[in-house]
C-alpha cells in the first residue's frame, strides 16, 4: 500500500494581521460602515440627525424599501 | 504582511460590485413592483378622499415630493443600494481580518464566503424572517419609530447571537469535532433567536394598530370599506407583496454572494503574493 505521502497543503492559515496594530483601521472602518447603514436605512425615518426634512429619506426611498428597512 | 487597509480596500471594491449587481437586479425586477405599490397607494388615497367627502369630513393636504419618482427609482435606488453594498463589504473585510488565522483550517476563500454568509444571515435574512421587507403603501406613519426600533433590535440580536453561536462552536470543537460542534453552535443560534422572535411583537400587534384595525400579522392594507361595510377598494395585492419580498431576498443573496466571492479571490491573491515575497512564512 502506497503511503499517503502528499499531505494536504491547506495548512492552517497563519495569523496575518496583528489586531492591536490594526485596531485603528478596523474600528474606523466599522464605525464608518455603521454610519452608512444608519443614513441609508434609518435617518429621517424613525430618527433624524439632519433636521426636520426628508431629503435623505426620499432620495434613497426605493433602496430603503428594497433593502428591508421599515419605511413611512 | 499585508496591511489591513489592503483588505478594507478590497472589501469596499467587492461591496461596490455586489451593490451594483443587486441594483441592476432591483432595477429590472423590483422597480415595476414598487411602481405598482405606489399606484395602489394613490388609488386607495383617492378612494379614501371620496369616502371622506361623502361623509363630510375635510381631507388632509397632499404631501409633495422632493425627488421625482424617476430620481428615486434610478439614481436614488442605485446610490442607496451601492452604498449599502460598500458598507457591508467594508464590514466583511473588518471581520475577515479579525478572524483570519484564528478560526482553524479554513482557506482564504472559504473564510470569505463564510463571513459574507454570516453577514447575510445576521444583517438581513434572520431579521427578514420576523420583519420582512415591504413595498411602499405598507407601513403606518404613526408606528415608524416602534417598527424601526424593533427591526434594529432584530438585526443587533441576530448579529450578537451569531457571534455567540460561533464562540460556542469553537468551545466545543475539541470535544465534539468540527462537524458536531458546528451543528451544536447552529442549534444554539436557532433556539435563542427563536425565543427572541417569539417575544418581539409583530408589526400588526402594535398597540396603535390593534386599536384601529384589530390583530393582524402585518400592516398590509386591508380592503377599504364604506360606511355600510361594502368594499370600495381592494386590499393590497398579494402577488405584488410576495414578488417584492422574494426579489428583496434575492437581491441580498446577490449582494452578499458577490461580496463573498469577489473579496475571497482578492484576499486570496493578496495573501499568496505576500507569502511569496517573504518565503520564510508558512506557505498557505
Automatic annotation (TrEMBL), chain A:
Membrane spanning stretches: 22-40
Protein keywords: Membrane, Transmembrane, Transmembrane helix
Pfam families, A to Z: CbtB
Protein name: Cobalt transporter subunit (CbtB)
Source species of the chain: Petropleomorpha daqingensis
From TrEMBL, chain B:
Taxonomy of the source species: Bacteria, Bacillati, Actinomycetota, Actinomycetes, Geodermatophilales
Keyword annotations of the record: Membrane, Transmembrane, Transmembrane helix
Ranges that cross the membrane: 7-30, 75-99, 111-129, 149-169, 181-200, 246-267
InterPro entries cross-referenced by the UniProt entry: CbtA_put
Domain of life, source organism: Bacteria
This protein's name: Cobalt transporter subunit (CbtA)
Organism: Petropleomorpha daqingensis
Amino acid at each position: 500500500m502506497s503511503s499517503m505521502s502528499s499531505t494536504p497543503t491547506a495548512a492552517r492559515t497563519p495569523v496575518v494581521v496583528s489586531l492591536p496594530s490594526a485596531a485603528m483601521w478596523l474600528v474606523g472602518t466599522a464605525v464608518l460602515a455603521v454610519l452608512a447603514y444608519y443614513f441609508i436605512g434609518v435617518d429621517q425615518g424613525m430618527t433624524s440627525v439632519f433636521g426636520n426634512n426628508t431629503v435623505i429619506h426620499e432620495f434613497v426611498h426605493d433602496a430603503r424599501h428594497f433593502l428591508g428597512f421599515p419605511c413611512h | 504582511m499585508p496591511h489591513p487597509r489592503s483588505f478594507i480596500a478590497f472589501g469596499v471594491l467587492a461591496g461596490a460590485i455586489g451593490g451594483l449587481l443587486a441594483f441592476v437586479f432591483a432595477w429590472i425586477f423590483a422597480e415595476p413592483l414598487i411602481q405598482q405599490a405606489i399606484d395602489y397607494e394613490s388609488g386607495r388615497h383617492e378612494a379614501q378622499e371620496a369616502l371622506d367627502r361623502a361623509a363630510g369630513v375635510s381631507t388632509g393636504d397632499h404631501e409633495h415630493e422632493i425627488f421625482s419618482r424617476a430620481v428615486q427609482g434610478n439614481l436614488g435606488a442605485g446610490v442607496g443600494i451601492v452604498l449599502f453594498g460598500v458598507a457591508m463589504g467594508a464590514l466583511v473585510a473588518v471581520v475577515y481580518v479579525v478572524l483570519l488565522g484564528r478560526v482553524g483550517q479554513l482557506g482564504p476563500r472559504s473564510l470569505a464566503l463564510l463571513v459574507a454568509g454570516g453577514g447575510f444571515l445576521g444583517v438581513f435574512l434572520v431579521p427578514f424572517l420576523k420583519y420582512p421587507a415591504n413595498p411602499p403603501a405598507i407601513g403606518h406613519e404613526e408606528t415608524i419609530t416602534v417598527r424601526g426600533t424593533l427591526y434594529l433590535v432584530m438585526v443587533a440580536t441576530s448579529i450578537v447571537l451569531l457571534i455567540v453561536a460561533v464562540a460556542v462552536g469553537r468551545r466545543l470543537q475539541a470535544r465534539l469535532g468540527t462537524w458536531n460542534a458546528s451543528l451544536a453552535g447552529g442549534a444554539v443560534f436557532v433556539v435563542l433567536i427563536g425565543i427572541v422572535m417569539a417575544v418581539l411583537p409583530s408589526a400588526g400587534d402594535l398597540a396603535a394598530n390593534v386599536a384601529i384595525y384589530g390583530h393582524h400579522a402585518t400592516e398590509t392594507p386591508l380592503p377599504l370599506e364604506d360606511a355600510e361595510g361594502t368594499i370600495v377598494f381592494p386590499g393590497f395585492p398579494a402577488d405584488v407583496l410576495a414578488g417584492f419580498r422574494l426579489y428583496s431576498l434575492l437581491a441580498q443573496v446577490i449582494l452578499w454572494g458577490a461580496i463573498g466571492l469577489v473579496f475571497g479571490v482578492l484576499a486570496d491573491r493578496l495573501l499568496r503574493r505576500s507569502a511569496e515575497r517573504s518565503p520564510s512564512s508558512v506557505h498557505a
